[in-house]
Q: What sequence folds into this?
């Protein structure tokens, strides 16, 4: 089992916030680090979806229930409100239509956690301003032509989408340099964001 | 005709007649099985493996006719992914087959072989027989049921029809129903057998003839192609010629692939009964798990409760392609069953589940826990 303190800060925050014993779907679960922590610490009934066969194989071989699938099209397999919590970590920006994916998330889960990298983080802005090229950072280490992140967004972009859709923000948390930071001027200061949402 | 079996078979004779989907019933059913590894005192560590169309109970034991290692020797054994140092593995010959369980070659009540008088059976009938075996062995709940190909169909049928009797279901390279293409290939095989003049309407046992060996060999050749991938055949044989420098301008087996298929066909007839081939392919063709449950596959699994499922497909399997596995996963998701699914990459087509595939080993080991 992966100790909670080894989780990425956004995942550790989600792990902290998921209620004990909930039914949880982790979309883009990778090899199941968060799932592993949640099933041990929170005794949740948890399922995962992951597109990469090798990661699915690793998750299944640690005894987790993970389906190889593409969140862009396979979420439609899941019935309405079939989970208490749906988690979408670092996947929204890879969706072909993030707005549709958000709808699916809130259809399947009564509450949803969404985490994403904030492209308006000040270091990104400086990097783009100074170098004039798409930033490559420790958290976004892949060049523009091979990145899976096809829909870069900022904290304010996300808030605007939520407002358009009438989605309720139950809470939001921000991170920079591997630590949680306050919410003031998050659009500048946050490297990552976690939102808890409901309809 | 298949060689007679040794008499040291492990068999159970069912006390009650076996009710069949056709409405008929089969009395005095014998089930031949093998076990591997010790059964725990609380009987909690049993895994039932279902074999494929021409498989048998010799999963990890030397085959009594061919002398070859068990068909899943690489998967089942001490320290292997299905580890017999902690699990008690049971594998039974399906009814309708010819390795010791009741089938068309065994005597009917009149003492004569059943032949084509044997009732048409289904996958569910095969599973009923295996459940009766479990009852006879006093095993109520299994740690897992496991099967590839037709074995996977039985695993799914087991989960649907006997929910609660297994904690885990591992279905590999399989489908929840036979497609028109699947049925079509089987029909080629059956027609090849029935067109062989030695078939005699299925009444070829005990005579001086050898039975429909040519027909059965052709059936096996056609089926064998469906178990491989185009890439696999190309890599293994390409257009290479067999023991010759140039084409013969005749109809000998010029190409290696022809020679290989002829060998596969003819060696198959040493170990398999043609009528069994007819009956088992029929059972597979009749298989449609959704149809049995009012047309909704999800309804087949609605009582599966906490049973955990793992579905595995292979990217080069065109017999039961990944889309068929996704269909199963879709149904399981609809009833919120705990399901895992992965499409593994392997070059060998449908047969990949029997061959070297380290990723499959890891998934199997991890899923069984």
A:
């Amino acid at each position: 089992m992966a100790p909670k303190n080894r989780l990425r800060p956004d995942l550790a925050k989600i792990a902290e916030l998921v209620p004990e014993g909930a039914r949880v779907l982790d979309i883009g679960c990778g090899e199941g680090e968060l799932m592993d922590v949640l099933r041990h610490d929170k005794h949740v009934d948890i399922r995962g979806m992951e597109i990469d066969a090798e990661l699915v194989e690793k998750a299944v071989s640690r005894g987790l229930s993970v389906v190889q699938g593409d969140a862009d099209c396979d979420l439609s397999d899941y019935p309405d409100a079939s989970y208490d919590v749906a988690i979408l970590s670092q996947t929204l920006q890879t969706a072909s239509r993030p707005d549709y994916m958000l709808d699916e998330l809130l259809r399947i889960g009564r509450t949803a956690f969404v985490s994403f990298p904030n492209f308006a983080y000040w270091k990104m802005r400086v990097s783009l301003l100074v170098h004039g090229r798409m930033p490559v950072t420790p958290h976004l280490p892949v060049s523009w032509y091979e990145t899976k992140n096809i829909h870069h967004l900022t904290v304010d972009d996300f808030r605007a989408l939520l407002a358009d859709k009438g989605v309720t923000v139950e809470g939001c948390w921000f991170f920079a340099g591997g630590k949680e930071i306050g919410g003031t001027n998050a659009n500048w200061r946050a490297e990552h964001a976690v939102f808890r949402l409901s309809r | 005709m298949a060689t007679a079996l040794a008499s040291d078979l492990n068999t159970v004779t069912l006390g009650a007649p076996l009710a069949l989907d056709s409405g008929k019933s089969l009395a005095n059913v014998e089930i031949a099985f093998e076990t591997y590894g010790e059964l725990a005192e609380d009987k909690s560590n049993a895994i039932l493996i279902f074999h494929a169309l021409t498989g048998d109970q010799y999963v990890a034991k030397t085959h009594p006719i061919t002398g070859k290692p068990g068909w899943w020797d690489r998967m089942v054994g001490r320290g292997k992914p299905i580890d017999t140092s902690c699990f008690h593995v049971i594998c039974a010959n399906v009814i309708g087959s010819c390795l010791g369980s009741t089938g068309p070659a065994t005597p009917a009540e009149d003492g004569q072989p059943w032949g084509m008088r044997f009732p048409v059976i289904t996958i569910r009938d095969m599973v009923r027989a295996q459940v009766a075996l479990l009852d006879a062995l006093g095993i109520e709940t299994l740690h897992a049921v496991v099967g590839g190909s037709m074995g996977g169909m039985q695993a799914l049928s087991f989960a649907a029809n006997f929910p609660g009797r297994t904690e885990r279901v591992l279905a590999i390279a399989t489908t929840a129903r036979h497609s028109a293409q699947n049925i079509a290939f089987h029909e080629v095989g059956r027609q090849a057998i029935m067109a062989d003049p030695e078939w005699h309407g299925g009444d070829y046992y005990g005579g001086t003839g050898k039975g429909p060996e040519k027909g059965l060999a052709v059936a096996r050749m056609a089926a064998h192609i469906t178990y491989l991938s185009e890439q696999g055949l190309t890599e293994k044989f390409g257009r290479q010629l067999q023991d010759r420098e140039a084409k013969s301008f005749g109809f000998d087996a010029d190409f290696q692939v022809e020679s290989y298929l002829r060998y596969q066909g003819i060696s198959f007839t040493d170990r398999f009964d043609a009528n069994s081939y007819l009956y088992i392919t029929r059972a597979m063709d009749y298989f449609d798990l959704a149809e049995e449950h009012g047309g909704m596959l999800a309804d087949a699994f609605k009582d599966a409760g906490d049973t955990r499922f793992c579905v595995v497909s292979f990217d080069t399997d065109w017999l039961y392609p990944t889309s068929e596995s996704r269909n199963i996963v879709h149904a399981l998701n609809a009833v919120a069953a705990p399901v895992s699914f992965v499409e593994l990459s392997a070059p060998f087509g449908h047969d990949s589940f029997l061959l070297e595939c380290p990723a499959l080993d890891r998934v199997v080991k991890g899923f069984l826990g």
